[in-house]
Amino acid sequence: MLAVLSAGGASSITQLTANTDISRQAVTKHLQVLANAGLVQDLRIGRERLWQFDPTQMEAARQSLEVIGRQWEEALARLKTMAEAMCSHAYACSRALGPGKTSKSKTVRARVRSAINVEDR
């Protein structure tokens, strides 16, 4: 629906349901949901009611998602740094303990799993 409205300008419900199996009532309900989200708005021209895409909210959503994406990238970079440091420490500890002694590396693995919320299996 948004793709049609953003590509074709303002359209009536009749135009939006043409060549589809979607009922006018279903399109009307869908448009109301989109209007409540601020993604479309209706225009009254005489007796006709036209619907058009309003890109303002979409731009605001895009900006919010970019901020969230940057936050995730930063968090994952910190996790990667911590995991690499812990793995490096675990390798050094296992080398110092000698063969067959893995208690330190198990502890480090448990810390990494805890940091990324993975249960020990």
Give a concise summary.
By secondary structure, the protein is mostly helical. It has helices at 2-8, 13-17, 24-36, 55-97, 103-115, and strands at 11-12, 40-45, 48-53. The protein has 2 domains: 2-53, Winged helix-like DNA-binding domain superfamily/Winged helix DNA-binding domain (Arc Repressor Mutant, subunit A); 57-115.
Please give a structural write-up.
By secondary structure, this protein is mostly helical. It has 2 domains: 2-53, Arc Repressor Mutant, subunit A (Orthogonal Bundle); 57-115. 67% of the residues lie in helices and 12% in strands. It has 5 helices and 3 strands. The chain has helices at residues 2-8, 13-17, 24-36, 55-97, 103-115; strands at residues 11-12, 40-45, 48-53.
Residue runs with pLDDT of under 50 for 5 or more positions: none
Helical segment count: 5
Beta-sheet strand percentage? 5-15%
Quick one: biggest sheet? 3 strands, antiparallel
Could you say which structural class the secondary elements and strand pairing correspond to? mainly alpha
Distance between the termini: 46 Å
User: Could you state the order of secondary-structure elements as H and E?
Assistant: HEHHEEHH
Cα-based radius of gyration, to the nearest Å: 27 Å
Helix content: 55-70%
Describe the secondary-structure layout.
Blueprint: H1 2-8, E1 11-12, H2 13-17, H3 24-36, E2 40-45, E3 48-53, H4 55-97, H5 103-115
Helix pairs in contact: 4-5
Keywords for this structure?
single chain; 3 strands; 121 residues; 2 domains; 3-stranded antiparallel beta sheet; 5 helices; mainly alpha; Arc Repressor Mutant, subunit A
